[in-house]
Amino acid sequence: MTNYNGRCHCGQIEWTVKLDEDNHVLCHCQACKLLSGGEYTLNAIADKDNVKVTKGDLKTYTYHGDSGNAVRCSYCSNCTSHPFHHQEVMGPDKLVVRTIFLNGAKDFKAAAELYGKDRLSWQKEIDGATTFEAGPPS
Questions:
Q1: SS (H, E, C) 39-99
Q2: Which of 95, 92, 90 lies closest to 51, judged by CA?
Q3: What are 96's strand-pairing partners?
Q4: What are the two backbone dihedrals, phi and then psi, of residue 116, each rounded to the nearest 5 degrees?
């Protein structure tokens, strides 16, 4: 496992996370596009116990994902960066961490693409990454 430090855009929130692998999982779902304002988000799954907020206080809001289960997004109340979220469908002990906020993230490789069916028409699949048309198999 490797330790990484993260910070939001304005610097009011900082956190640490331990990850098993140095990989990005790209998500092309509509919710991620709306949250990020981009064509996909960069993510990793982490054990909840391996994510620690070291500075500031996050706010949380909830929406419901494709499964119908709750998704609880944590965000900075000042700049609205979303460092991580909890998808109820994944169980109580996992968080989806936005890897782009982590130091060293530019060197991560793309391991998978989720919601390939929602990829923008001009985007190509990433060589070496596994593409799932929706979420990964449970």
A1: CCEEEEEEEHHHEEEEECCCEEEEEECCCCCEEEEEECCCCCCCCEEEEHHHCCCEEEEEH
A2: 95
A3: 45, 85
A4: -55, -30
Q: Tokens 């500031």 — which residue?
A: 56
Q: List the end-to-end C-alpha distance of the chain, in Å, as a whole number.
A: 23
What are the angstrom distances between the C-alpha of 7 and each of 22, 51, 82, 98, 100?
A: 17, 13, 10, 11, 10
Residue where the block lists tokens 């609205």: 80
Question: Rounded to an integer, what distance in angstroms lies between the CA atom of residue 113 and that of residue 88?
Answer: 20
Distance of CA 21 to the CA centre of its chain: 14
pLDDT of residue 136: 67
Amino acid letter, 129:
A
CB neighbour list of residue 11: distance below 8 Å, 6 or more residues apart = none
Q: pLDDT digits over 96-128, tens only?
A: 999 999 999 999 999 999 999 999 999 999 999
Nearest Cα neighbor of 118 from 66, 76, 45, 44 is: 66
